[in-house]
Amino acid sequence: MEKPDILIIGGSATGITVAVSARRYYPDAKILLIRKEKQVLIPCGIPYIFGTLGSPDRNLIPDSALRNNNVELIVDEVVSINRDRRTVETSSGRRLGYEKMVLATGSLPRVPPIPGFELYSVFAVWKDIEYLKELLKALDEAKDLVIIGGGFIGLEFADECKKRGVVNVTVIELLPHGLLLACDEEICVRVEEKLWERGINVLANRKVEAVVGNKKVDYVKLDDGQNIKADVVILGIGVIPNVQLARDSGLEVDEKEGIYVDEFMRTGDENIFAAGDCTRKRCFFTGRPTFLRLPSIGTMEARVAGANLFRLRHRSECPIGVFGTVIGDLAIGSAGMTEREARQAGFDVVTGEAEAPDKHPASIPGTSDLTVKLVFEKDTRVLLGGQVYGSMTAGKVANFIGALIQKRMRADEIVTFQVGTHPMLAASPIAHQVENAAEIPLTRL
Ligand SMILES: Cc1cc2nc3c(=O)[nH]c(=O)nc-3n(C[C@H](O)[C@H](O)[C@H](O)COP(=O)(O)OP(=O)(O)OC[C@H]3O[C@@H](n4cnc5c(N)ncnc54)[C@H](O)[C@@H]3O)c2cc1C
User: Fold this and answer.
1) How far is CA 205 from the centre of its chain?
2) Which of 199, 203, 177 is nearest to 190 (CA)?
3) Which atom of ligand 1 is nearest to the CA of 11?
4) Which tens digit of pLDDT belongs to each residue from 89-125?
5) Dist. CA 9 → ligand 1 center (Å)
6) Closest ligand 1 atom, residue 16 Cα
7) Which of 70, 242, 325, 374 is the most buried (most CB within 10 A)?
8) Count of alpha carbons within 13 Å of 219, Cβ hemisphere only?
9) Alpha carbon separation from 141 to 132, 145, 167, 410 (Å, rounded)
10) φ, ψ for residue 408 (rounded to 5)?
11) CB under 8 Å to 400, separation ≥6 — which residues?
12) Residue 319 pLDDT more than 80?
């Protein structure tokens, strides 16, 4: 029986990062990674398969990081863990031992029990090449597409399927706006305007009652009495942590929240760690459970787990959530809490907003405006969140804001932050959006 020092279950963003980090800290360890799929899709690239990329084969994580770090790879499914013997068994009948193990089993698409979801042309977003090829085929014959869920994934699918040439694309969203869990209303409205401009219908404040058809879909029935014609339906309504293996092995899990881990990414078993979409997470601001599942969080947890396997070195941070997306020529980024979310959580907040061209002078070709909105806790002036929209620099600026949030910086500290600049690369230092959006609320306190 093969017995590596470190066994990693899961080979996507989290599993690979665990392997690379573990190799850095434990150069002599025998590391083995086992995953279900022969080739791993870049999960965040999946919507782009349907427009910009054109095929799942153009959206793959190469295995070079494993090869270059001397990590053995087995493609197989682990079906059980024996914690007393420190062994696992796979669907092909293989048995493997381990000294330390990391569960990086990720997440699965959420599929609620709505009538008609079992019909042939209803697709959830499984991270599976053959399944997505079926979806590509179905879309090529489709005229009417309905996407259920107006979060990032749903909207990215809508935009990319429109690019592919699907004639009628409709997004159904339960909340008053698409993206409302990541952005404040005024930004969601801009995104919706952009979607309409691109010929995509957004029906918000609507609930899907059923998907109706005979083998294939005919239409989607909404709670306001409308029936929306559909050849294909895509579900983009979130994910659930994949906890089955952990649960069956007796580790403590919450089906909705994930595998229980401590700040060192240890489960209740000292030889088993877990990281990524499969773990239970606590909100950075409130300490309550959060359903954020992002590779920014997963890879952070992976670096902590990988380093801590034989000696505790790092503590993980509670997640803040940093997102980004692009609809047409409108980029959006968001970090931390929205104003709406902060108020709902009970914070008294002040906000500041600033807009400026993303290069300077604005006559430089390719310049476009970028707007930043920052949300501060009123009493402490600590930054709780930020949203960015406009130019393609939005993602980078959202990451910058994310770092300020994680370090719990106050508005007065941000104002004295020294921000580098260059005409081709950044806003004018006089008009830097983050600096100005931080200074504006200070004048009101
Ligand atoms: C369509 C889509 C678009 C997204 N876009 C973005 C984006 O733009 N930005 C962003 O920040 N986030 C995005 N996300 C979220 C991001 O993709 C996830 O947070 C990320 O994939 C989590 O990585 P993970 O490695 O923890 O889990 P997963 O990617 O779910 O990987 C789990 C791994 O575990 C393996 N596994 C599971 N069970 C077993 C078993 N029993 N035996 C062996 N192997 C097993 C699987 O085969 C897989 O390799 C997107 C997600 C989706 C689905």
Assistant:
1) 23
2) 177
3) 49
4) 999 999 999 999 999 999 999 999 999 998 889 999 9
5) 12
6) 25
7) 374
8) 7
9) 15, 11, 11, 54
10) 50, 45
11) 434
12) yes
